[in-house]
Amino acid sequence: TIQTLSQDEHLKEFDPNAFDYILIDEVHHAGAKSYQRVMDYFKPAFFLGMTATPERNDDFSIFKLFDYQVAYEIRLQEALENDLLAPFHYVGISDYEFPKDDDQLTVDQYQDRFSDGHHHQEDQRAVELLSSSDRVAYILQQTNYYGFAGEKLHGLVFCSSVSEAEELAKEFSRQGVSAKALSGHDPVTIRQRVVMDFEQGKYNYLITVDIFNEGIDIPCVNQVVFLRSTQSAIVYVQQLGRGLRKYPGKEYVEVLDFIGNYKNSYMIPIALTGDDSYSKDQARETLDMEPTIGLSTIAFEEVARERIYATLKKTQLDRLANLRSRYLALKSQVGRIPKLMDFWRAHSVDPQVLVTASKVKSYYQFLQKMGEDVHLTDYQERVQNFLATELVNGKRCQELLLLRELLTKEEVTPVAFAELLQKEGCLWDSPTQRSVEMVLDLSFYAKKAYPSQVDYGGQPIVTTTLLGYQLNPQIRQSLKESALFRNLWEDAIEAGLARSQRYRPDQMMTVGEKYTRKDAVRLINNPLNVNAQIVSGYYFTNEESGLKEAIVFITYEKSEGIREEINYQNGFLNDRVVRYFMKQGDAKLSSKNFLRFKSGEYRLHLFMQKSAADDHLEYYYLGTCQYLDGSAELTNDGKRPHLGILLQLDQPLPYHLYHTFID
């Protein structure tokens, strides 16, 4: 073992140059003194480290140990897609519910105490409940129903504590299913013998806590059962991986996850898909779409799905503690302060999350939150805030493309820029051109209300002259004199353009993507930023703008406790027609805004969110729509009038988007 080899008397049996090539398995442990002693002693021509989990929770960098040279990297999802592992069939199942509320609360609190990965005092009452005959009967009913691949069951069960494993093994056996508990408390010789017995079919199940997280493969495992809350995505994948080794007769491994009312269940869709973006939308998409990974499948029972939804609503994925761990992991990997594009290329945290998390306004401010010694002038910080807050989201690429051109050119003529946009397939008509120019010269923003022109530096970012577009001289000077400013500026532009790939550049907005009211006001080319409260349910461009655009925002599910006068139910009649109730002040057939809907003069852009709790300030863009003639219905509930109208989308909603709301 490494512990034996690291002892001086054993090391000195070898010449330091005895080996040309040394391969270290499970190299994520190399921060330990025993590993360090061995690696410092030997002087091979080549060290190769292998690990499935290079990320560590301490400050030691495995990547630095190998001079940041990664010879090859393949993650679980890619290995599954390339048929290097046995596929899994994952089913999220609701855990057993105890009849007495006090018992359920005892179990929930117990499970949550162990969810942080640390050892806690075991609650004897909770263990009794979790290993009770009724719960075990429920577990065995489910495991029998979903089954396994192969001729004989070889199941691996993960639970929260050693005593729970022991009691579960007893109850499994009492109910006719042979099981054996195994833990780190057992001597190595005992573990080896039990594993051998398990492989030979003496036991149907091994029940453990964490000794099979890594380093031990039992290829015959064809069913993995989770009876515990999720500690972390890394640990979850390690445990899942115990069943993925290929084995004759094993077409797949059945993965059964008993999901209780514990706080960390939101990690499950993140772990299964390897999504590291810290985006709630991505996690919800996994729950809704139940994607496949190669031949592997993911499915959730409805109650289990709702439990994960509930934890997603409560948790703040983009809290700094989460982002700090991903930041430090990537910094360890690249050996420097990572850029937004490093996160993008690593399929890690979404750059948009990094520049808006915990009230930061730019990646510069995020770096300060991470404790980095970085410094900009007040003006430099303000224009970085503009770029990060307004443009990194990539929802319109035209501003970013112009800023990219101005990095290397003194000026860009309107003709040359129009030719570039045509090449890029971008929408570029007179209203869009005017809007882009007003955003970049800051005239789109108010002089006092946030975000004001002063908040973004008080001077145009880009000016338009007879020669063309020119970058603010102060910004140009900062790009020359400050390496930090230039790196942040270039990185933000590149990250924004990378994000823009998900949006259609030839249209104002992209169906199925999310936008805030503020986004929509800019993207319909309104000449002035408008406060979200003014936009409220709908907003029509005014006559002075020369535009005929309108934006309509609908919340599909009203929040509990909402004011009675606005608690009316909007909804779909089908995948193309939406019933919509006008605001209370417009609930009459003569109201100015109703007549605007009815006139057909405005291009109506329809947005919808499932609920404020799910989507916060963001709405899915459903496309353009028309008022259906004669659909207005004026009713009165005895307290106040309500005016309902029908809006018909110009194109039916895609199936998955429609079912996002109605399911």
TrEMBL record:
The coiled-coil regions, if any, are none
What PROSITE patterns does this protein's entry cite?
HELICASE_ATP_BIND_1, HELICASE_CTER
One GO MF term on file is: hydrolase activity
Identify the InterPro entries for this entry: DUF3427, DUF8090, Helicase/UvrB_N, Helicase_ATP-bd, Helicase_C-like, Helicase_Restrict-Modif_Enz, P-loop_NTPase
Q: Ranges for the Helicase C-terminal domain?
A: 141-285
Q: Which Gene3D superfamilies match?
A: P-loop containing nucleotide triphosphate hydrolases (3.40.50.300)
Helicase ATP-binding domain ranges (all copies) = 1-72
What is one GO cellular-component annotation here? Answer: cytosol
Q: Which PANTHER family match?
A: ATP-DEPENDENT HELICASE IRC3-RELATED (PTHR47396:SF1), TYPE I RESTRICTION ENZYME ECOKI R PROTEIN (PTHR47396)
Q: What is this protein called?
A: DUF3427 domain-containing protein
